[in-house]
Amino acid sequence: MTRAGRRRWLWRTLTAVFLAVIGVLLWHQFRQLDWPEISAALRSYSVAQLAPALLFALAGHLVYACFDLLGRAHTQHGLPVRVVLPRVLVCYAFNLNLSAMLGGMALRYRLYTRCGLRVDTITQVIALSITANWLGYTLLLGMLFIAGLPTLPGDWPLAGSVQRLLGLGMLCVPLLAALATLRWQGRRWHFRQHRFTLPGPRLCGAQLLLGSANWMLMAAVLYALLPSDHSYPTVLAVLLTSSLAGLVSRVPAGLGVLEATALVLLRGENDQAALMAALIGFRVCYFLLPLAGAAVLYPWLELAHRRRQAGAHSSPSQKRHQAPLS
């Protein structure tokens, strides 16, 4: 077997292993869910309740996909928007449901390298995306903590003045990021084998805007499914706090952690049955339905790549009939 043949065989083997790992993780994730309970919760909602939640979920995923468009503008890598968006949407769905290392990192490297991007460019795009997400998070939760939201139980270590001090500390993060872009805009620095260029204040402002919008739309999904006897700022604060608990616990998708935290923080404003139904509906709309879409879209992207590879080895007359990058 020639060297090129061995390389193709190796890549095909790695692709098969990668797809098998994704399949096992998906099966493990879906197996933990109580599908009869999910079905009953969804049937309890009217179209008028579900439609806004689904629209907010779609908007949230699209806003997150725009994080990578900021990276596209900053690195000037030139991939068309129609190529970037489906790949980011797939990665985000896997990121939410499985883990950041799989969806946010490994899958992004795989899909982007297949489009011809260099590793250092992909690393910078991912770094800008992560920064946008957490800049928006710290900005929102910092302001809400200072305002005393959510109302934490007295026996929690963050309750009272500690909550407000932590809020002030969180607000320092986006402030320092903005000052850094003003002071060192365009400065290049190295981390291990990766090179990064610090963005300017305009891009930092776009990161704050999109990062905040992403979390606010996510909270809007839950807000649309809850009964009307609660406020949106409270729901946003509860979601952000629950997400922090899920991050600390390191449970994929915060499964169970998000629900348990929200049940404690919102139990005074809603009955348990309605609250549990809203949390299940939220997970279906924002986590599971996008995951189902990504499970269909990802094999299509793999198949499209295989066809482009086959076209690269075909004759010039055959290449004219190959499908464009999609």
- Radius of gyration from the alpha-carbon trace, in angstroms: 22 Å
Q: Which blocks of ≥5 consecutive residues have pLDDT under 50? A: 315-324
Largest sheet: 2 strands, antiparallel
- How many β-strand runs? 2
Number of helices: 12
Query: In total, how many domains does the architecture comprise?
Result: 1
Rounded mean pLDDT score:
82
Helix percentage: over 70%
N-to-C CA distance: 32 Å
**Structural class based on helices, strands and sheet pairing:** mainly alpha
What gross morphology would you assign?
A: globular
What's the SSE pattern? HHHHHHHEEHHHHH
Q: Strand fraction band?
A: under 5%
Main sheet: which strands, in order across? 1-2
Entry keywords:
single chain, mainly alpha, 326 residues, 2 strands, 12 helices
What is the structure about, briefly put?
This protein is an all-alpha fold and 326 residues long. Helix content is 76%, strand content 2%.
What does this structure look like?
By secondary structure, the protein is mainly alpha-helical. The protein contains 12 helices and 2 strands. It has a two-stranded antiparallel ribbon.
Set down the secondary structure blueprint:
Layout: H1 3-31, H2 35-43, H3 47-75, H4 81-97, H5 100-113, H6 119-146, H7 161-184, E1 188-191, E2 194-197, H8 201-225, H9 232-249, H10 257-266, H11 272-312, H12 316-319
Antiparallel strand pairs: 1-2
Helix pairs in contact: 2-11, 3-4, 3-6, 3-8, 3-11, 4-5, 4-11, 5-6, 6-7, 6-8, 6-9, 7-8, 8-9, 8-11, 9-10, 10-11
